[in-house]
Amino acid sequence: MPTIQSNGINLYYEERGEGEPLLLIMGITAPGSVWEKHVDYWQKSFRCILVDNRGVGSSDKPPGPYSSAQMADDCAGLLHHLGINKARIAGVSMGSIIAQQLAIRHPELVRSMVLMCPWARCDNTARDIFTHMIDIKARLKPEEFAVYIQLLIFSKTSFDDPDMYHSMLEDRKNAALDPNPQPLIGLAGQAEACMHHDVLDLLSGIQQPVLVTGGEKDAFTPEWMTREVASAIPNSQLHIYPNSGHAFHWENLDDFNHRVRQWLAEN
User: What are the tens digits of pLDDT across the range 163-212?
Assistant: First the structure.
């Protein structure tokens, strides 16, 4: 499996599809494979690059704290290794803050970006959520921690939908059987990066086209955070999914996959 040296760590990645490169950056706690339901569609149009962020999956999990800038440099190293001079970027949640830093620190590498449930800075609520995430990770079984994450990211609509809820129950079972679970040290490092990300004053310097997306009912990173990012980036478009949570991209899977593919094809 492909692992490279980037920014002082071993970084794992996978590639799917052919065409112009699309780097996919996942959120806190999750490896790159969680993009699966999107990559199945996008790989028909793009060379999709799925990276395991530092602290999770098959990449190194050094002691933290990490920073969003540091993790952006990890991704820049991956693009350089692959000989990619410019890529489209999609980042979800923590992945969106890494993408922001990639555009700020390495603008020459970024053609366009899709920022999903992003934030430019944390308020007290967000910091407490990330701190609480670390605390309960240390105390709960993996399947119990999975329930907490689901309560953060899914809207009531998903819990009320029989098929979605069945899938959530299966994910809880799978968490208990995961042969490579994220260690506490990796989650803590990632959470520090999330809490201390503060680039609101720098977003005006991003000149690339940006699609900013979020969920109206997101309890994890609320709608105001998404709108603040979109307002700060000059060449951005905003789409909010009604009655949807942090996981709006799964709750509106077909529309989201098609919308993003079309936007990326034009940008």
Answer: 999 999 999 999 999 999 999 999 999 999 999 999 999 999 999 999 99
Chain Cα centroid distance, residue 163: 24
pTM of this prediction exceeds 0.90: yes
| CATH number, domain with residue 174 | 3.40.50.1820
Q: Which of 94, 99, 72, 115 is nearest to 238 (CA)?
A: 115
Alpha carbons within 13 angstroms on the beta-carbon side of residue 213 total 24
CB 51 within 8 A of CB 25: yes
Range of the domain at 256: 3-266
Res 1: pLDDT: 58
Position 36 scores a pLDDT of 97
**Helices and strands counted in the chain (H then E):** 11, 8
Give per-residue burial for 171-199: e unless 16+ CB within 10 Å, then b. Answer: ebeebeeeeebbeeebbbbbbbbbbbbeb
**Rounded CA separation 160/4 (Å):** 43
Cα gap 106→256, rounded to integer Å:
27
Residue labelled with tokens 């799964």:
250
What's the 3-state SS for 182-223?
Answer: CCHHHHHHHHHHHHCCCCHHHHHHCCCCEEEEEECCCCCCCH
- Total domains in the chain come to 1
What is the identity of the amino acid at 2?
P
Q: What is the mean pLDDT of residues 30-36?
A: 97
- Cβ atoms of residues 89 and 97 within 8 Å: no
Nearest-angstrom CA–CA distance, 65 and 172:
28
